[in-house]
UniProtKB/TrEMBL annotation:
It comes from the Bacteria. Its EC number is 4.1.1.23. Keywords: Decarboxylase, Lyase, Pyrimidine biosynthesis. It catalyses: orotidine 5'-phosphate + H(+) = UMP + CO2. This is Orotidine-5'-phosphate decarboxylase. It comes from Formosa algae.
Amino acid sequence: MTTEQLIEQIKIKKSFLAIGLDVDLSKIPPHLLDTEDPIFEFNKAIIDATHHLCVAYKPNTAFYEAYGLKGWKALEKTINYLNENYPEIFTIADAKRGDIGNTSTMYAKAFFEDLAFDSVTVAPYMGKDSVEPFLAFKDKHTIVLALTSNQGAFDFQTKLVDGKEVYKQVLETSKTWENSENLMYVVGATKAEYLTDIRKIIPESFLLVPGVGAQGGSLQEVCKYGMTQNVGLLINSSRGIIYASQGKDFAEAAAVKAKTLQQDMASILNAQ
Ligand SMILES: O=C(O)c1cc(=O)[nH]c(=O)n1[C@@H]1O[C@H](COP(=O)(O)O)[C@@H](O)[C@H]1O
């Protein structure tokens, strides 16, 4: 999917919500555990109930890898279900990969070719030659971790090196990489006050912003400092939406939570 198509969907749906499909078998409704593929059944119900309220889904691969072959199969079924039934949805494999060049190429093939995701999250720690293999894929997006939502972000990302914070160096240096137009960045919602500085370096790039909901980040603050003319934001919430109920009404309850966020987004867009 191109960035232009993503922007069009945001305008049509008045939503820039990404729903995180972080499926934990101990948290899903117990009645699903009797089905052949509980993870996929859960995802399918959530997707069918919420697809009109969001523009993206973000399965975090850890929640699938933890269940071995069955988990990976459920991830494959989920991305195929999305691509076949809701091709207008932007898909994010939250895998946080990155390695030496030839290995990164294989990671990129895994998520862009075998599992046909639109984007993948990538850690920039190993530098240019670890990220460029992902950027080489046309109309696919590489979402580089810039300033993450967790407390550990202050261990390295905000440290000064040669007089500049590491996360700013990631933003500036990554702009020089080949096919950098395919870059997006992760900035945690809990770090909204940093967005003014971040926008000075990357005024137009799309940001994936997790941390609204369970981690306490504020949608309003993120939009105040990070929104661009083309919105430029994908706000993710996972647990705050998908675990709204453990009953048979779990998908409807998730839709209620998603709708609350979507309506807040529509108000922000209308006021823009
Ligand atoms: O790359 C991410 O998506 C990510 C980056 C970050 O800085 N913080 C962060 O929470 N995430 C992911 O975003 C999701 C947040 O989930 P909730 O806290 O349940 O909404 C999880 O899948 C995290 O792994």
